[in-house]
What does this fold into?
Amino acid sequence: MIKERGKNKGTGITIHPLLVGFWEVDQSMHTFGFDMGKRTKSCCYIWLILGAAQKILVDTGCADPEWTRQYHRPMDADTYKNPIEALAAKGIRPEEIEIVINTHLHWDHCFNNDLFPKSRIMVQKKELQYAIAPLPIHALPYESQMIHMRPPWVKAVERIEAIEGDLEISPGVAVVTLPGHSKGFQGVLIDTSKGRHLIAGDTCPKEENWRGNSQLKHIPSGIHVDLEEYFKTFEKIEKIADVVIPGHDPRVMESPVYPLGSGNYGS
It folds into this structure.
């Protein structure tokens, strides 16, 4: 059972967002029904968690610029880094990563699972089930066999652990189910010295998703499978998280490490 916000003791665990690429999209792809016609950067991050009992990586990033351009959308090639290069800047080798958590199995979050040969890879069972046979509109984000592609998560399928529900995977680090964007989406909740920080991923791809606007308290992503579940997920986040870190927002990089002193992305 995950306790409600404000009841954690706090730890020395830190979160390090590592930018591995970005592309431009219409903002409404992230803010469903709002900001149509506004162009914005959508950043692809991997998240290194240090100070826990194991070295943990949340998501493994996207494909190289050529693949991304051919099958998805043009990427800024000058800023692309593969995950191994990004981790090397922190002094971490791929074989040191003991746990990989995939928030979900869209191509830009699990493309490089196979680069971490000694890691356990944790995915929600519901996410695996949906990734095998998604609705046609979601086939490309999963690079599904339904459209004659090879899903990237299959490259390391033998190390995937199908988990179910909220689960503490290491003292101070828990996965929490946040369905809506995808069937089996999971965020990562970390007890830090400044409260519970949630790596919200594509549940809140932009700061605007969490803070909302004059019409909505919180705004779903434009890519989703179930809006009713999505709004229940927002209610859950309100109860368990002190700080919500968005998943694709360039403003995340204003700090190289979390928790922040002031908590820019607090609730």
Remarks:
- The radius of gyration is 17 Å.
- The CA atoms of residues 179 and 185 lie 5 Å apart.
